[in-house]
Write a structure and sequence with these properties.
Helices cover 70% and strands 0% of the residues. The chain has one domain. Helix 1 packs parallel to helix 3 and helix 5 packs across helix 6. The protein starts with 7 loop residues before the first helix and ends with a helix. The chain is built from six helices and no strands. One of its GO terms (cellular component) is plasma membrane. Its main location: membrane. Belongs to the MreD family.
Length: 160
């Protein structure tokens, strides 16, 4: 199949899950980027025929189980992100990398708003101010994540 590297998608999602589980010092934990959202964003933009809302929901449930968060929280957050990405994919693909990074940063900020809203509705403890810095990290990491995943996907296709 042309343009299809069957192992690149599951490998990148697995690595994103592992990066989300790696323990960090408490002082920098709030700065942890939402790796799973960055990886999902790449695949929704580049392979919309393979990665959609169902995939986002599925990996969100897996992440909820792996991270021990409320079942369905990350699934909801990732589905919301995937929906917005699908809606604006045609435009986003042709943005320069700097504008793409800003758009991804805005999506990650939206994700934080959804998470904060869920915490508020559920009566969970209030999130610290540092909670809002993670989208900035995602914005800064989008170019290398995009280039790395693109190299993985394209490199896998060339080897076939």
């Amino acid at each position: 199949m042309r343009g299809h590297a069957p192992w690149a998608l599951p490998l990148s999602v697995f690595i994103a899950l592992l990066l989300g589980l790696v323990p960090l010092p408490e002082s920098i934990e709030p700065l942890r980027p939402y790796w799973l959202a960055l990886v999902l964003a790449y695949w929704v933009i580049e392979t919309p025929d393979r990665v959609g809302l169902g995939f986002a929901f599925s990996i969100g449930l897996v992440a909820d189980l792996a991270f021990g968060s409320l079942l369905g929280e990350q699934a909801l957050r990732l589905v919301a992100m995937a929906f917005i990405l699908q809606r604006f994919r045609a435009r986003l693909r042709f943005f320069p990398m700097s504008q793409q990074a800003l758009a991804i940063g805005a999506l990650l900020l939206n994700d934080r708003i959804v998470a904060a809203g869920l915490h508020l509705v559920l009566g969970a403890p209030t999130l610290s101010a540092a909670f809002w810095f993670a989208p900035l990290m995602g914005l800064l990491l989008w170019p290398p994540v995009f280039v790395g995943l693109d190299a993985l996907r394209v490199g896998a296709m060339r080897r076939r």
